């Protein structure tokens, strides 16, 4: 990981679950700890991370000041729309993601 300046803005998109996703969340928490504004969008297989109790790294990321959104379309498509989400996780759609992708100065990582 490179040295980043405090105040950097990141948009991280997680589409996986499991061990590699947990390592990605650890890196996301480190960015937030360093003072960056870090948004995480969970989509595809990554929505599993947003279900309460499914991820050890997600509460740590939220505690570091990260913000988490979960794709409402994927939740509905996988019949998870009524599943309990980790506290602090909000639902959103691809329209919001597209807006965030186009914000000037945002560094994007799609995993």
Structure, briefly:
This is DsrE family protein. The protein is α/β, with parallel strands linked by helices and 111 residues long.
Question: Could you explain how this protein is built, in words?
Answer:
This protein is an alpha/beta fold. The chain has one domain (9-110): Hypothetical Protein Ychn, Chain: A (3-Layer(aba) Sandwich). It has 4 helices and 5 strands. It has helices spanning 19-33, 57-63, 72-77, 94-101, and strands spanning 9-14, 37-42, 67-71, 89-92, 106-110. Strands 4-3-2-1-5 form a 5-stranded parallel β-sheet. Helix 2 (57-63) links the parallel strand 2 and strand 3. It is globular. The two termini are 15 Å apart.
| Percentage beta strand | 15-25%
Please write the string of helix (H) and strand (E) elements: EHEHEHEHE
Level-1 CATH class name: Alpha Beta
**What separation lies between the terminal Cα atoms?**
15 Å
**Largest sheet data:** 5 strands, parallel
CATH H-tier superfamily: DsrEFH-like
Beta-strand segment tally: 5
Give the number of helices. 4
User: What characteristic shape results from the CA principal axes?
Assistant: globular
Indicate the CATH topology.
Answer: Hypothetical Protein Ychn, Chain: A
The CATH architecture designation is: 3-Layer(aba) Sandwich
CA gyration radius, whole angstroms = 13 Å
Organism: Streptomyces maoxianensis
Protein name: DsrE family protein
């Amino acid at each position: 990981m490179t040295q980043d300046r405090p105040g950097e803005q990141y948009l991280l998109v997680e589409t996986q679950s499991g061990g590699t996703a947990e390592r990605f969340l650890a890196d996301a928490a480190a960015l937030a700890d360093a003072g960056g504004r870090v948004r995480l969008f969970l989509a595809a297989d990554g929505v599993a991370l947003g279900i309460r109790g499914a991820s050890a790294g997600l509460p740590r990321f939220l505690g570091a000041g990260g913000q988490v959104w979960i794709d409402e379309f994927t939740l509905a498509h996988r019949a998870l729309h009524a599943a309990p989400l980790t506290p602090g996780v909000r639902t959103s759609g691809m329209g919001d993601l597209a807006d965030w992708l186009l914000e000037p100065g945002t560094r994007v990582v799609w995993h």
